[in-house]
Request: fold
Amino acid sequence: MLPSDLIKIAFYLFCIAPILAAVLAFKGPPVVRTIARFVLLVAWLGYGVATVSCLWLAFGKRPSSGIGNQVFLLFAIPLTVVGVVWFALWRAARRYEYEQSLPPAERKIEELVDIERGLELVTKELAAAERKVERWGISSEERARLRSEIGTLKLTLQRLEEARAMRL
Reply:
């Protein structure tokens, strides 16, 4: 087996498989959702191990290889970000599976709780963005970005309120 074959296998296991698992964790049949959640968990653990090994190589007490061991920090940062994304998707998939296993009346209550939580977060984010846009020390590009974000947040707030009204 050549090193290029190992790189291909690692690419499929840690890049392609988690992306497919993220979709199937929410859209597949129950057995497939369970397997997809397991794949997301393994991907998160794999990225965690890769991050720890990069940090160990960056700060380990060994002689330098000549290019500087802190170059491994450049690899650790994106690995950490992707690992956090897989962890968040794994948790969301577990929550989704829990909600799907509930009887309809309890599922409705859990959905309302999630909507209320979302409404609270969007309201806080909207208030913070509206306060920021009124500051005089920001650039015109930042002001335009904030105004666009405020419009998106207002639309999201409206859709969440409609979803809440529909479930009540």
